[in-house]
Specification:
Blueprint lengths: L2 E5 L6 E5 L6 H10 L4 H13 L3 H14 L7 H22 L3 H19 L6 H14 L3 H14 L4 H13 L3 H14 L5 H13 L3 H14 L4 H13 L3 H17 L4 H13 L3 H13 L4 H17 L3 H14 L6 H13 L2 H14 L4 H12 L4 H17 L4 H11 L4 H17 L7 H13 L3 H21 L8 H23 L3 H14 L4 H13 L3 H14 L4 H13 L3 H13 L7 H14 L7 H21 L4 H14 L2 H14 L4 H13 L3 H15 L5 H14 L2 H14 L4 H20 L5 H24 L7 H82 L15 H9 L22 H17 L5 H15 L7 H10 L4 H6 L6 E2 L15 E2 L7 H23 L7 E6 L5 E6 L14 E3 L23 E3 L21 H8 L11 E2 L2
Helix pairs in contact: 1-3, 2-3, 2-4, 3-4, 4-5, 4-6, 5-6, 6-7, 6-8, 7-8, 8-9, 9-10, 10-11, 11-12, 12-13, 13-14, 14-15, 14-16, 15-16, 16-17, 17-18, 18-19, 19-20, 20-21, 20-22, 21-22, 22-23, 23-24, 24-25, 24-26, 25-26, 26-27, 27-28, 28-29, 29-30, 30-31, 31-32, 32-33, 32-34, 33-34, ...
Organism: Daphnia galeata
Keywords: Repeat, TPR repeat
GO cellular component, one term: Cdc73/Paf1 complex
Length: 1171
């Protein structure tokens, strides 16, 4: 052991004090005072006292050194700083261990004072700064100051281990676990022999960072360094317990036991042991350990844990008062992340019936743990029972989330269905269906009768009465079967009562279904049978009274309601129904008293139904005309006050809002009333009163069309039968709109329902009178209408006379009825004049109508005669044309008959040429035409020959540049024209060959052929041109007809091409008439486009295009002629002034036909070609 030497005063001797033989502190202080020892000796002895756990001597020596020590030597300031900092550090440690807050505060104050004194000596001493930093760190609320001082030290000495450890603590408390781990690692690298606490800190950082394996290694290393390290033992125990295996749990408990053996007052150890014994169900040990932990710590988090352990131990034992107390204390100590005490406290509030505070507790839990299944389910159940719509909406949201997360949770589906019953009937029904499906398929359990009853009630509200009836019957059967199968024990006496209650309720609901199905006898029997078994079932009495009321048996209904009052004299529904009976009979006073009686009861002081009924009573008094404006205003204010009271209690009450709108309308605030009615109608479309009120507003605003439409829509939507009151409103709107006939019809419908209603009779008489007056004043009214008006006026007169004597004085003024009767009498006295006027108008109209009928008949007769004459004329014309046609056909047959031509045998050298010439058919022109009566004989006309020769010469001159073949053909034709080398009869044959070009073989195939004749008029005005006429054809069969048509058309086309050179290139027009004399056109022009496309117009491309500027009439080059189109159109008239004069025909017709064969077949039957 060491020692310390104390120099004796004024000598060279010393006193040596051995540390293991230190005397009492007071004795040492006396020695040090006497020898006036330097302060560093005082500090050394004080530290040794502290090492020997002699804390009191340690404090005494340091406190005395501040005033009694020798400080008059070199570097005494450092020793003085050491003394002050050492004592201050001791006070900081004591304060950290102190549990009493006052003593803790006192110790921290002493330490702060010492550090402040030291600041005046050497402020920036490293040890001094470290001590002061730890003071700030342990005080808790000065962490930033501690961090600044640690940073200052680290700037001067980067490897200062206390500063590194301090920074690690600060980072850990700020949840910057990576930074804290880095500081611990740096401290460990700086000094590998750091104590076990450094490893412990690293283990906590690894655990927070989710690295459990390294945390385990750190805890194990800490235990290697210090087997009694409680923190490491607890850390290892937690890691073992979290594995949730039997062996690991056993190891964890053993580690906790070791920690408890080391430090039995460690609150962390005690709390974990209490948690272990809670699951062991050793609740007495839980309470003992937790309470011990609570008293051994000042850390609020530790205390919260201790209180929670005690609270749940009391909770599971049923001691809810003690559990509530400790749960509440735990919430006071707990941090925001420790939410288990709030969960337990919420359960305690539910047990106490304090749902508001319970909801607050669970809201805190849900805020810390969003989406927590149990919390959302509990909150949904709590808010479902709330009267606040917003909270019910929250409950709906929570339960929907629960069912989405856990779709097999039957309880959540049932809770959701119960919430949706208030707002979404179909959604509630769907939720119940899902719950029943889960119960059947997954839980394999029977559906409880309560759920079946609720489903039946939902179907009833949805209007599906048959389905509702089926579920109610199933509920009754299930309840009976459950009651029979339930074993009866001593502790199950309440079960049969519950099942019986379910049967009674469902049976009552079944009676309501019978009422809805109009099975009134069954419903009445059902209610009475229920009353036999349960005479105190008040609702059955009320339903029997309502059924009697609906049958019109008011007194019987009143008796049933009074029977209910005998069972429960303060039943609000019974008093309300009796009050309604009085109001229906317009007994406002007795009805008012009944509702006031309800409001006098404490339980029903704010009964909305009674308040609205009283408001309606005061509102009804406003309908009675009165001259007392003050009284009317008071009644308005009372009604308005009652309606406002209801809205304060329930701002969604549509009946109260509707009443306020009515009061405003009575006050004359029409726009405001209309706005309120519109808002109510937006809230619900199933409230008929608001529809009627909107219609009344339209009437007041003189918007009669809208009012009529609203009344009619209301009747169609809400009433299956004619409603007398609404029909009266409708007739009033018609009356004000001037539609008297529609008003009369509405009143007649109402009278069919209520024939004895005198108000209806009065209104009907008034409408009949006004309608009759209108008709009589109209001078255009016919006799029948006037007579009917007089009849209705007489009926109105009788009605008013009867009403003036026998009417209801309380509903209208009898004097007014008498005045209207007199007015009807006056109108009846004037009626004869109107009848006479109408009769004279009717007779005059009858005469005029008879005269017009005669004129129309004469005109029709004249038209028939004219039509007959035209038809006869048309028939005669048709017969004449048919006769002419037959004559023409007969003449044509005779004109187209030819004699058989003799064949000549040509020389052998000319045989092939002759054969080729014989195969080319020809058509004769006017020069070879056989005159009538001289067929096949007679020379050709010289004049035509003379005309033909110049044309041939002209043709020859134009074709000088053509091929030798063309020149040969021209010479051949010329030779034939001169008639060289012919025998007897050959002149005719030669002429026919030239002009016709047909061999005998070809002629044998033709039955008849067209003869184109020209007139003899060759005057200069006509240009020497002749007209060619192709007469109508009559062929033997269809094949010959087509052949003749094609040949004739080819000839015409060729002639047009030949003639076009003298006029305009490629321009020609031939008008064609078929046998029906309808116009058609054949256009030969490659420039003209079809301006009006028509499905009846056919455009056929026949020939090719000519590359030269001028079309050549040579038959060999016909294929190169410009595009040739044929348009057949019966509707386009001929407006072209250019006409083709046909002078001669083509000779080589077969060549034209060969080119024509490329075109589609064109059928034009019996046509004639004109110029």
């Amino acid at each position: 052991m060491g020692s310390v030497e104390i120099p004796l005063r004024d000598t060279d001797e010393v006193i040596e004090l051995f540390f293991d033989q230190l005397p009492d502190g007071d004795e040492v202080i006396q020695i040090l005072k006497q020898e006036h020892a330097q302060i560093h000796i005082w500090v050394t002895l004080a530290v040794e006292y502290n090492n020997q756990n002699k804390t009191a001597d340690f404090v005494k020596v340091l406190e005395a050194s501040r005033t009694e020590s020798n400080m008059n030597y070199k570097d005494s300031e450092k020793d003085q700083m050491k003394a002050l900092d050492t004592l201050a550090a001791h006070y900081v440690q004591q304060a950290n261990r102190e549990k009493n807050k006052d003593k803790k505060r006192e110790l921290f104050t002493k330490a702060t004072h010492l550090y402040t004194t030291a600041d005046k000596i050497i402020m920036y001493d490293q040890n001094h700064l470290l001590g002061r930093a730890y003071l700030c760190l342990l005080e808790g609320d000065k962490m930033d100051q501690a961090d600044a001082q640690f940073n200052f030290v680290l700037n001067q000495s980067p490897d200062n281990i206390p500063s590194l450890l301090g920074k690690a603590c600060i980072s850990f408390n700020k949840k910057d676990y990576k930074a804290a781990l880095a500081y611990y690692k740096k401290a460990l690298r700086t000094n590998a022999t750091c104590p076990a606490g450094v490893r412990l800190g690293m283990g906590h950082c690894f655990l927070k960072l989710g690295n459990a394996d390294k945390a385990r290694l750190a805890f194990e290393r800490a235990l290697d360094l210090d087997p009694k390290c409680v923190g490491a033992l607890v850390g290892m125990a937690i890691l073992e317990l979290n594995l949730q295996e039997s062996d690991s749990i056993r190891n964890g408990v053993q580690l906790l036991s070791r920690a408890y053996a080391v430090d039995s007052s460690n609150p962390m150890v005690l709390n974990h042991l209490a948690n272990h014994f809670f699951f062991k169900k050793d609740y007495s040990k839980v309470q003992h350990l937790a309470l011990h932990a609570f008293h051994n710590t000042e850390n609020e988090a530790m205390r919260a844990e201790s209180c929670y352990q005690m609270a749940r131990a009391f909770h599971v034992q049923g001691d809810y008062d003690q559990a509530f107390q400790y749960y509440y204390q735990a919430t006071q100590f707990a941090s925001t992340n420790f939410i288990l005490p709030h969960f337990g406290l919420g359960q305690m509030y539910i047990y106490r019936g304090d749902t508001e505070n319970a909801a607050l507790c669970f809201e805190r839990v849900l805020k810390a743990q969003p989406g927590n299944y149990e919390t959302m389910k509990i909150l949904g159940s709590l808010y479902a029972a709330s009267s606040s719509q917003s909270k019910r909406d929250i409950a709906k949201t929570h339960l929907k989330k629960v069912t989405e997360q856990f779709p097999d949770d039957v309880e959540a589906w049932i809770e959701l269905a119960q919430i949706l019953e208030q707002s979404d009937l179909q959604g509630s029904l769907s939720a119940y269906s899902t719950a029943m499906k889960i119960l059947k398929e997954k839980v394999q359990a029977d559906i409880p009768p309560e759920i079946l009853n609720n489903v039946g009630a939902l179907y009833y509200r949805l209007g599906n009465l048959e389905e509702s009836r089926k579920y109610f019957e199933q509920s009754i059967e299930r309840a009976k079967s459950d009651a029979e199968q339930e074993p009866h024990t001593e502790n199950s006496e309440q079960e049969p009562q519950v099942e019986n209650a379910i049967c009674v309720t469902t049976n009552y609901n079944l009676g309501r279904i019978y009422e809805g199905l109009f099975l009134c006898d069954k419903a009445e029997k059902n209610y009475k049978d229920t009353l036999k078994e349960h005479p105190n079932y008040v609702d059955c009495y009320l339903r029997l009274g309502c059924m009697a009321r609906d049958r019109g048996q008011i007194y019987e209904a009143s008796d049933w309601f009074k029977e209910a009052l005998q069972i429960n004299n303060e039943h609000p529904d019974a008093w309300s129904l009796i009050g309604n009976l009085h109001l229906a009979k317009m007994e406002w006073g007795p009805g008012q008293k009944k509702f006031e009686r309800i409001l006098k009861q404490p339980a029903t002081v704010n009964d909305s139904y009674s308040l609205i009924a009283l408001g309606n009573v005061w509102l009804q008094t406003l309908h009675v005309p009165t001259r007392d404006k003050e009284k009317e205003k008071r009644h308005q204010d009372r009604a308005l006050t009652l309606y406002k009271t209801v809205l304060k209690n329930d701002h969604r009450n549509i009946w109260a809002a509707n009443g306020i709108g009515c009061v405003l309308a009575h006050k004359g605030c029409i726009p405001e009333a209309r706005d309120i009615f519109a808002s109510v109608r937006e809230a619900t479309a199933d409230f008929s009163d608001v529809w009627l009120n909107i219609a009344h507003i339209y009437v007041e605003q003189k918007q009669y069309v809208s009012a009529i439409q609203m009344y009619e829509n209301c009747i169609r939507k809400f009433f299956r039968h004619p409603h007398v009151e609404i029909l009266q409103y409708l007739s009033r709107a018609h009356f004000r709109a001037g539609k008297l006939r529609e008003a009369k019809l509405s009143l007649l419908k109402a009278q069919h329902v209520a024939p004895h209603d005198t108000v209806l009779l009065f209104n009907t008489a008034l409408v009949l009178q006004r309608l009759a007056t209108q008709i009589l004043k109209d001078e255009k009214s016919d006799l029948q209408t006037v007579l009917q008006a007089v009849s209705e006026l007489q009926l109105s007169h009788k009605f008013f006379q009867w009403l003036s004597v026998n009417g209801d004085r309380m509903r209208y003024d009898l004097a007014f009825a008498a005045a209207e009767a007199r007015h009807c009498g006056d109108l009846l006295s004037q009626a004869q004049y109107h009848v006479a006027r109408a009769r004279s108008l009717a007779e005059e109209e009858k005469r005029m109508r008879k005269k017009q009928e005669e004129e129309r008949e004469a005109f029709r007769t004249k038209q028939r005669e004219e039509q007959h004459r035209l038809e006869e004329s048309r028939r005669q014309e048709q017969e004449k044309l048919l006769k002419l046609r037959e004559e023409f056909i007969e003449k044509t047959k005779k004109a187209t008959q030819f004699n058989e031509m003799p064949t000549e045998k040509a020389e052998k050298g000319k045989k092939s040429r002759k054969k080729k010439d014989d195969e080319d058919g020809f058509v004769t022109d006017g020069s070879d035409r056989i005159r009538s009566g001289d067929e096949g004989a007679g020379p050709p006309s010289k004049k035509r020959k003379a005309e033909r020769k110049p044309r041939q010469s002209e043709t020859k001159s134009r074709k000088k540049s053509k091929s030798g073949e063309e020149r040969g053909r021209t010479k051949e034709r010329k030779g034939r024209g001169e008639g060289k080398g012919v025998k007897k009869g050959s002149a005719k044959k030669s002429s026919n060959d030239v002009e016709d070009g047909l061999s005998s073989k070809q002629k044998s195939k033709v039955v008849s052929k067209a003869i184109i004749s020209s007139s003899d008029d060759d005057s200069s005005e006509e240009g020497g041109e002749r007209k060619a006429v192709v007469k109508e054809l009559e062929l033997a069969d269809e094949g010959e007809l087509l052949l003749a048509q094609r040949r004739a058309l080819a000839a015409v086309l060729y002639l047009v091409l030949r003639q076009s050179r003298d006029l305009h290139p490629a321009l020609g027009l031939v008008r064609v008439l078929d046998r029906d004399l309808n116009l058609a056109h054949v256009l030969l022009d490659d420039q003209i486009q079809d301006p009006n496309p028509d499905p009846n117009r056919v455009r056929v491309q026949i020939l090719g295009r000519n590359r030269g500027p001028d079309p050549v009439p040579n038959l060999a080059l016909l294929a190169d002629h410009p595009v040739l189109h044929v348009l057949l159109d019966r509707h386009v008239p001929d407006r072209n002034p250019v006409h083709v004069r046909v002078q001669h025909l083509a000779r080589n017709l077969d060549l034209v036909l060969k080119h024509l064969n490329r075109a589609p077949m064109i059928r034009i039957e019996n046509f004639v070609l004109y110029h």
